[in-house]
Amino acid sequence: MSDLDTRTPVLFIHGLWLHATSWANWSDLFQAAGYPTLAPGWPGEPDTVGEARADPGSVADHGIDDVTEHYAKIIEGLPTKPILIGHSFGGMIAQRLLGQDLAVAAVAIDAAQIKGVLPLPLSSLRVTFPVFKNVANRHRAVSLTAEQFRYGFGNAVTEQESTVLYEQWAIPSPGKPLFEAAAANFDPHSPAKVDTGNEMRGPLLLIMGGRDHTVPESITRATLKQYRHSDAVTDLLEFPDRAHSLTIDPGWREVADASLSWLKQQSL
Prior knowledge:
CATH superfamily: Alpha/Beta hydrolase fold, catalytic domain
Low-confidence stretches: none
Number of domains: 1
Number of strands: 8
Shape: globular
Radius of gyration: 17 Å
Number of helices: 10
């Protein structure tokens, strides 16, 4: 009998502009803690960073619903509901899946804004400008330059560290999810809508980086307020000196350990 038959698996979900293999350190740590782990990519995502860069069209035009359904099908193939750990748009997807009762718990790290969240900080607009500058990018995959990655992800680490992270993990990502999220509060059927009122869902931990330009803390605090009508566990944890690269930069272990400790507190 495999570990997946006996232990609650942890399913990692990455966000825009990072490859699924960026979860490697987390996966190793959680396996050492006794959890079986999976870190599948988004729909169409090639197996390696190099392949993803060489074929950006493979992920183009996939939206929030596509990604959610992709991970829902993966969950259907598991012997038990998983724990979800998502970063950025992966954090939004994790919340959607948790709200649909497809997971026992979720950790949403610097999660993209869900429907109902109103703050739109200028720094977020600057990060997403490479996508929004051309409406045709809704149906394309878009890459960041090293300088753009530095502002959106690596602003709390040294320039050299940011460059290393960019070269190691950055890939083109579909523009469609950003267009969908931007229109969420004007669309009654937005794919960014999460069932925040679900009383029966598993516990949720929202993690935010105090120096994050992509998902500033105002977005995460506004996300927390969306859950005010549910008595299900919803916790908030801040790392004041961290930015959007907090899952992959040299301080990743602190965030991962905090996630493990929270899961232990939830008896998971």
